Amino acid sequence: MTLQRFMDDAISPWMREDAQDSDIVISSRIRLARNFADAVFPVIADSSELEKIREFFQKEYAHQSFETYDDFEFVSIRDLTAVEKLVLVEKHLISPLLARKPESAAALISQNEQVSIMVNEEDHIRIQLYYPGFQLTKALEKAFALDDWLEEKINYAYDEKRGYLTACPTNVGTGMRASVMMHLPALAMTKQMNQMIPAINQLGLVVRGIYGEGSESIGNLFQISNQITLGKSEGDIVADLQGVVKQLIEHEHNARKYILKQSRENLEDRIFRSYGILKYSRIMESKEAARCLSNVRLGVDLNIIDTVSRNAMNELTVLIQPGFLQHYAKNTLSPKERDILRASLIRKRLGEED
After folding, report:
1. Are strands 163-164 and 158-159 parallel, antiparallel or unpaired?
2. Could you read off the pLDDT of 18-68 as tens digits, one per residue?
3. pLDDT for the residue 2
4. Per the annotation, does 126 bind a ligand?
5. 76 φψ region: left (φ > 0), alpha (ψ -120 to 50), beta (else)
6. Nearest to 313 by CA among 237, 219, 176
7. Across-strand partners of 164?
8. 270 is an annotated ligand-binding site residue
9. Average pLDDT for 277-288
10. Do residues 180 and 25 make contact, with C-beta atoms less than 8 angstroms apart?
């Protein structure tokens, strides 16, 4: 396995698996923040201290395997080009913050890309584990096992009263962020999402865009995650999030049924117009592509379009991003050049589906 494999495949292998509620929930993620007890936290550590952490992970975990997560590839951020970093961010294998920290920053990525362990980001360790669809409980179980595996060789910074100690106070306690990525086009169309976001925030959860904190929602994709990490157990946090997600799934299904009943012709027109734009356009901006892909994905989920797979929609969502386009072209592209290539790749991919 090499870095090239991560770069070439727009859709991670685990994303191809069928899963519960995958028509609405794209993925489930558990992220655990951890630090070494006997080392200065990354936010104030000098380069030599951070380099020791990086070397430790390279020595102890490069090409190791844990359960079904085989052959962890050790990736040094400083060795990556700007485009390579952008591609790994677009695939959610590293965070935008890690990509901006070239010195002593690294990541361990499993062969199936389901696990990514970021080194020297905001904390010494950020464990990320993904599952397709709505599988938060299973993701939490596996994240615990992975955490225990790392702890066999690492003495974590932990306080009996406060829990796991982290660089940011908002992560102290469990150090956990549980999140789901959801496609909610019907709630967006019926303007219900704008009313739901404040209510979700009042429950101690937060709604963000596709790339987490600071990002906007594109293509009706929303990331729902917990804000509270202190005073609740990991199981309680996941249970609270699951309760809200189940309600959102129900509301989205009801909104889809309502639109189909009240204005099916308008909905089908919207879906097939978007399909036509994707199939025949020669220039395509990223936001327009995301909007059209969202409409076509809804058409696939409602069996209005039966010539396109859900996997193709997942793949195109990543493939149209700036990093992947430039990696595909093997060259730095201007915005106009990216728009032309984006349209070309979408036409080609949809042609393969047909």
Report:
1. antiparallel
2. 898 999 999 999 999 999 999 999 999 999 999 999 999 999 999 999 999
3. 58
4. yes
5. beta
6. 219
7. 158, 173
8. no
9. 96
10. yes
Is 209 known to sit in a ligand binding site?
yes
219 assigned to a ligand binding site:
no
Q: What is the residue type of 335? A: P
CB crowding 113-139: b at 16 or more within 10 Å, else e? bbbbbbbbbbbbbbbbbbbbbbbbbbb
131 labelled ligand-binding: no
Q: What's the one-letter identity of residue 110?
A: S
Closest CA to 184 of 298, 288, 265: 298
Q: Is 158 helix (H, G, I), strand (E, B) or coil?
A: strand
Question: Is 310 assigned to a binding site?
Answer: no
User: Residue 25 corresponds to which tokens in the numbers above?
Assistant: 């929930």
Alpha helices by DSSP H, listed for the chain, are: 3-8, 47-61, 82-90, 96-99, 136-151, 185-189, 192-202, 234-280, 286-301, 310-319, 322-329, 335-353
Q: Is 180 annotated as a binding residue?
A: yes
Tell me if 273 is assigned to a ligand binding site. no
C-alpha count within 13 angstroms, C-beta hemisphere, residue 34: 21
User: Is 178 marked as binding a ligand?
Assistant: yes
- Express each pLDDT in 230-272 by its tens digit: 889 999 999 999 999 999 999 999 999 999 999 999 999 999 9
Q: What is the pLDDT of residue 7?
A: 72
To the question of whether residue 213 is assigned a binding role by annotation, the answer is yes
